[in-house]
Write a sequence for this structure.
């Protein structure tokens, strides 16, 4: 049994778990959306004093902040106890595309070229993460949600705005993948 | 999330290159099950654990907001290979570099709050 949990899970298990989390939150009178936490953290840091958008009672969102704590803990448990240390199995086509860009093959689940310390302390690597993160935070709030709020919660409720947002996610993602990454690497 | 490798930059690259079914399978399964669950909740008017009806807030229609916002989000998603949830799972995996992206995301969120009134919605 433990052996089964340790191996990488197939997509349908993970998809089912995500749907279960969403339904669980609904039954607790909440809704599934991770990026709202970024706003909550800004408010908790005092952003509500100067900007109206952040002026709300952030303590009412404590449950969602706990979701983040859970995400960190879940990641830690998974990394510490529930892994076989296997190298991630990505498709050969992706592998050869990334090699052509100068990425070495995967050793863990993240590429050294972006998440390694050497990359972090180079100007390019630091700015990539900072600006990439900036666009995620800015875009998520502008669109009113991220992957969980739009692609999962929104589409489950058959919301057209969410579909438009998901189309946007892909427009941006394709530009980054096929134009920005080849320029950067 | 981490057990199906959805937190991996490589998996996100596979998805945006349309070279693997993996991520589409994860999101697809979640959405199909989600649609069924939401339908059942509405059909049988189910209540939450405190007895309040479960209500779904319809999202306000707007094209520029979702399209521009979504595109900006997608640009960042494909670069860093992480959306807001997986960012935090990566901390658990000791990929400390992700803290820079989280800092960026907080500055991005703050900037939106400042510029909100001047953006088309």
């Amino acid at each position: 049994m433990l052996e089964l949990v340790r191996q990488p899970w197939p997509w349908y298990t993970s998809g089912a778990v995500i749907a279960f989390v969403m339904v669980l939150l609904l039954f607790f009178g909440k809704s599934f959306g991770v990026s709202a936490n970024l706003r909550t953290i800004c408010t908790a840091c005092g952003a509500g004093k100067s900007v109206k958008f952040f002026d709300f009672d952030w303590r009412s969102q404590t449950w969602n902040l706990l979701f983040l704590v859970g995400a960190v803990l879940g990641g830690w448990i998974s990394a510490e106890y529930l892994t076989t240390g296997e190298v991630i199995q990505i498709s050969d086509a992706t592998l050869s595309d990334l090699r052509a860009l100068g990425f070495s093959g995967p050793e863990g689940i993240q590429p050294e070229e972006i998440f390694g310390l050497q990359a972090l302390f180079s100007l390019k690597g630091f700015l990539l993460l900072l600006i990439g993160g900036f666009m995620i935070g800015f875009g998520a709030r502008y669109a009113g949600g991220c992957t969980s709020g739009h692609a999962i919660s929104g589409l489950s409720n058959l919301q057209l705005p969410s579909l438009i947002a998901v189309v946007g996610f892909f427009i941006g993602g394709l530009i980054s993948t096929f134009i920005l990454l080849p320029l950067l690497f | 999330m981490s057990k199906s490798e959805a937190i991996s930059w490589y998996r996100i690259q596979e998805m945006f290159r349309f070279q693997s079914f993996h991520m589409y399978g994860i999101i697809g399964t979640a959405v199909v099950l989600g649609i069924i669950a939401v339908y059942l909740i509405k059909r049988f008017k189910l209540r939450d654990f405190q007895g309040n009806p479960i209500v779904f807030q319809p999202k306000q229609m707007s094209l520029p907001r979702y399209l521009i916002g979504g595109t900006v989000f997608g640009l960042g998603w494909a670069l860093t290979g992480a959306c807001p949830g997986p960012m935090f799972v990566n901390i658990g995996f000791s990929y400390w570099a992700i803290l820079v992206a989280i800092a960026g995301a907080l500055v991005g969120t703050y900037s939106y709050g400042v510029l909100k009134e001047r953006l088309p919605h």
About this structure: The radius of gyration of chain B is 18 Å. The mean pLDDT of chain B is 93. Residues 9-118 of chain B form one domain.
